[in-house]
Amino acid sequence: MLSLVLYIDMDYFFAACEELKNPSIKDKPNAVSNYDKEDRRGVILTANYIARRYGVKSGISVSKALELCKDLIVVKADYDLYGSISSKIFDIIRSYGYTTEILSIDEAALNINVNSYEDAYSIAKDIKDRIFNETGLTASVGIAIGKIIAKIACDEAKPNGILIVKQEDSYSFIKDKSIEKIPGVGRRSLEELRKLGVERLSEINKIGYIKLKSILGSYADTLIALSKGIDYSKAEPSSEARSISREKVIEPTDRDEALEKVAEELIDELYDYISKSSIAYAGVGVKAVYQDFSQSVKSSKLNGLHEDKETIVETSKRLIRQLPKDKPIRKFGVRVYDIRSMKGQRKLF
Ligand code: TTP
Ligand code: MG
Ligand code: MG
Question: Which of 18, 19, 101, 107 is catalytic?
Fold first, then answer.
C-alpha cells in the first residue's frame, strides 16, 4: 500500500474563468487585474498561457504588462464568478471521499492510499476529466509522498498535466530545486538565504542549524528533511470541531498593530455573542487570508475552559505575531473553539 498526496491546482484560474465567460478572448493574450485596464493602481492577478509567453505574470503592474504585450486584453476581476466555479470544483473533488485540504481558491490536497502508481495516475486522470467535463477548465496534478513535493510536482506538470514523483525518486527530484520553488519560503527568508549563498535546496545544509532556524523558524526542520527527500506533510482537513468565529475583509496589511486593531473589533463582536449565550471556550485561533487567497491559521489550545474576554485578546495578539507576513493580508478572522454551553451550569465563582 502506498500512502500518497495528490495535489491539484487549476491552470491560470481567474483568466480561465474569464475565458469561459467570454470565449472570444481564449486564443488571445489576456490577463485579470484587480482594477480596470486604465486604472493606474492595477496589478496583474494572473494571465493566460499565451500572455505568459510575453512575460506577463501575477504581481506586475498593468502598465508594465502592456509594455510587454501591447495587445494584452485586461479584464477586471469578478470574484463572485471565481468563487462559484471554485465551489463547484471543490464539490467534485470532495465527492471522491478522500481526506481533503483546501489550500486556496484553486487548489486542494488529498491523501490517497493506493496499491500502485498506476492507480494513483487513474485517480488523478479521473478527477481532472470530471472537472473538465463539468466546468470546462483544466487542472494540473502532482502526486508524491508528501504535500510539499506533490505541490512542486503539480507546478511542474502545468498546464493540464499530471506528474508523479515516486518515493524512490523524491531525493533526486527535490535536492537541486531552486529555493524559490519551495512552497512556504517567504520573500524575506528567500533574500536572507540568498545572501548566505543558498540557491538550491540541498545547500541549506551549509548553514548552521541555529542560523537556519532564525531565518525559517520551525519550517527549518521541515526543509532539512525535505532536502534529504523526506516529506511527511499530508492533507489536513480543517477541523470540524465546534467553533464560533468572526472575520472581515481589511485594507491589505502586513503589520501586527493593524491586525491587532482589527482583532479587537472582531473580539468585541464575538465576545458579545458568547457572553450572551453563556459559552465557554478552550481554544483561540486566528486566520489570515492573503491577497493570493492562500490562508494561514494559528491556534492555541488553552488550559481548561475560559469565559473571559481578556484571554481571547491576549491569545490572539500572540498568534498574530506568529502569522507569516511575507505577503499582505486581505481578510482576517478570530475564533474560539472547543466551546461548551454553560447555560444551566452552576457557576463556581
Ligand atoms: P495560482 O494557482 O497561483 O495561479 P493560476 O491558477 O492563475 O496559474 P497556474 O496555472 O500557474 O496555477 O493562483 C490562483 C488564482 O489566484 C489566480 O488565477 C489569481 C489569484 N492570484 C492573485 O489574485 N494574486 C496573486 O499574486 C496570485 C499568484 C494569484
Ligand atoms: Mg492555479
Ligand atoms: Mg493555486
Answer: 107
Report which ligand 1 atom has the smallest distance to the Cα of 159. 10
Residue 23 lies in a domain: no
Q: Which three cell numbers stand for residue 100?
A: 481533503
Residue pLDDT, tens place only, 251-298 = 999 999 999 999 999 999 999 989 888 888 989 999 999 988 888 999
Q: Are 270 and 337 members of one domain? A: yes
For 84-143, the pLDDT digits (tens) are 899 899 989 989 999 998 888 899 999 999 999 999 999 999 999 999 999 999 999 999
Distance between CA atoms of residues 150 and 300, nearest Å: 28
* Structural domain count, the chain: 2
Compute the distance from residue 104 Cα to the ligand 2 centre, in Å: 9
Q: Residue 203 is part of which domain span?
A: 175-227
| Residue carrying the nine cell digits 509567453 | 53
Alpha carbon nearest to ligand 1 atom 7, residue: 12
Q: Which residue stretches of 97-252 are H helix?
A: 117-135, 147-157, 170-174, 187-195, 209-216, 219-227
Closest ligand, as measured to the CA of 293: 1
Question: Does residue 305 sit in the same domain as residue 218?
Answer: no
Catalytic residue list contains 107: yes
Interatomic CA distance for residues 312 and 147, integer angstroms: 32
Q: Collect residues with CB below 5 Å from ion ligand 3.
A: 9, 104, 106-107
CATH number (domain holding residue 289): 3.30.1490.100
